[in-house]
Amino acid sequence: MRGIRTVLAATTMLAGIGAASATDLEVTHWWTSGGEAAAVKVFADAFNATGNNWVDGAIAGGGNARPIIISRITGGDPMGATQLNTGRDAEDLVKAGLMTDLTELAEKEGWADFIRPAKLLDSCRFEGKIYCVPVNIHSFQWMWMNRGVYEDNGLAVPTNWTEFVASAPALREKGVIPLAVGGEPWQINGMSGVFMVALGGVDLYRQINAQKSAEAAASPEMTEVFEAISAARGMVDDGFVGRAWNDAANMVITGKAGAQIMGDWAQGEFSVAGLTAGKEYDCLPGLGMHPALDTGGDAFYFPKPADDNPEIVKAQLEMASMLVSKEVQVNFNLKKGSLPIRGDIDLAAANACMQKGLVILENPDNILPSGEQTWSSDTQGQFEDLWVEFFNDPGMSVDEAQERFVEIVENAD
Ligand code: GAL
Fold it and tell me: Does 250 lie in the same domain as 394?
C-alpha cells in the first residue's frame, strides 16, 4: 500500500512541475549495506515513478566514494546527482560554479519553511543561492546493544557507558566481545566524537566542534576522553582493523558482540535483520550519559551537466523535488534509520530508538554541531589519522595524542 502511495505522491508532485520527460540520471552514493540499499531503493522507485530513470552508481565506503565523486565532477565527467554529507564536502565544487542552482525550486516549494534545523539548508547555501538538498538527519552519538547477550548471561542490560564498562569483563568471560568496532578512520573518528560529548559533556563538545577552542582541546576534561578511548581498546577484538561498520553491526545483531558505538544508520541493519528496537536490541543516545545529538546527515548535489543539457537539469530539479516530498521523506528515513529533514510530517511508524532521537532533538540545547559542518575535509582527515593511530597503538601516550589533537584544532581551517 505504502509503495502505491509513494507512486501517487510522486505523480501528484510532478503535476506541479510540468509534464514528465524520461531522462536517465546517474546517481552516485555510498549506501551499499543491507539497510542502506533498502533505503536508497525508496529514492530510486520514487524517481522512476516520475517517469525518469535512476541509474544507480553505488560506490562502497564513504572514504572511497567521496574522492571519486569529487574528482569526476572536477574532471568534467559529472554524474547526474550525488549523495555527499551535509556540510563542507562539496564546498570547493560549489565555489567553482560546478553545481546546478536549486534556489528557484527551493523558493517555489518553500524549503526554508519546512526543513529543520535550518542549519541543514544553510549548509547548502553559497552567496545567497542553494546548491543541495538535505535528505536526512543522522547522528553519530548512539550505542546499539544486543539485549539478549546480557539477559541470556544473567547480566543487566547497561543503561549507560559506565554500566557497560563495568559489565564488559563478565561479558568477555562468556565469550562475547564487549564492543564491536570497525577500524576504518571515519569510524574511529566518529567514536571519539561520541566519547567527547558522552564523557566530556555538551559544553566541551561545543567548545571544540563549534568554537574550535584549542584551550578546550587541551583541557583535563579532554584528557579524560582520551583515557576512556584508551580503555575502550581493551573491549574490542583483534579483527577490528579495516572492518566495515555494517560488519561490526552484524556482530551485535548475531550476538558475537554486546554493543557498537555507531551512527543511527546502524539501525537500518537491525531492521533488515528483523530485529525490533526495545525488544531484541536497545539504543543509548549519548551513551546514556549526555543525550545530545549532532544533526549531520546527507544531502544530494546536482553537478551541472557537461553539455548543459536542459533535459538533465529538468530531471535534476524533478529529483530534488521528489527527495523533500513528504511521502518520500517518511518512507526513506524509516528504512535509513535517520530522521526526516521536515518538521511537518507524521512519524507514527518511527521505532522506539527514532522516537528517542525525535524527543532529544525537540530541545535546541541538545543539538550539537556536526563535524562535517565545522571542519574542512582536510582537517577531518587529520583528525581521522590521529584517532586511528591512537586507537591502534597502545604505545601512543594520552599526552602525545592530546598534544597532536590540540595542534590540529589550532591550525584547523
Ligand atoms: C555516512 C552517511 C550515512 C551512512 C554512513 C555509513 O557518511 O552520512 O548515510 O550511510 O556514512 O555508510
Answer: yes
Helix (H) or strand (E) holding 301: strand 298-301
Structurally, how many domains does the chain consist of? 2
Cβ pair 358, 285 in contact under 8 A: no
Domain range enclosing 214? 142-294+364-410
Domain assignment present for residue 272? The answer is yes
With the most atoms of ligand 1 within 8 angstroms of its CB, the residue from 29, 69, 138, 260 to mutate is 138
377 shares a domain with 268: yes
Three-state SS at 144: strand
Show the cell assigned to 150: 546480557
Q: How many CB atoms lie within 10 A of CB 140?
A: 23
298 lines ligand 1 (CB under 6 A): yes
For 222-264, write each residue's pLDDT tens digit: 999 999 999 999 999 999 998 999 999 999 999 999 999 999 9
The string of pLDDT tens digits covering residues 143-167 is 999 999 999 999 999 999 999 999 9
Residue 97 lies in a domain: yes
Residue 30 CA to ligand 1 centre (angstroms): 7
pLDDT tens for each residue of 25-47: 999 999 999 999 999 999 999 99
pTM more than 0.85: yes
Q: Is the CB of 62 under 6 A from ligand 1?
A: yes
Q: Amino acid identity of 366?
A: N
Residue 350 within a domain: no
Best residue for ligand 1 mutational test, from 135, 139, 142, 298 (most atoms within 8 Å of Cβ): 298
Do residue 259 and residue 333 come from a single domain?
no
Does residue 352 lie in a domain region?
no
Q: Clarify whether residues 100 and 215 are in a common domain.
A: no
Please give the number of the atom of ligand 1 that sits closest to the Cα of 61: 12
Q: How many C-beta atoms lie closer than 10 Å to residue 20's C-beta?
A: 17
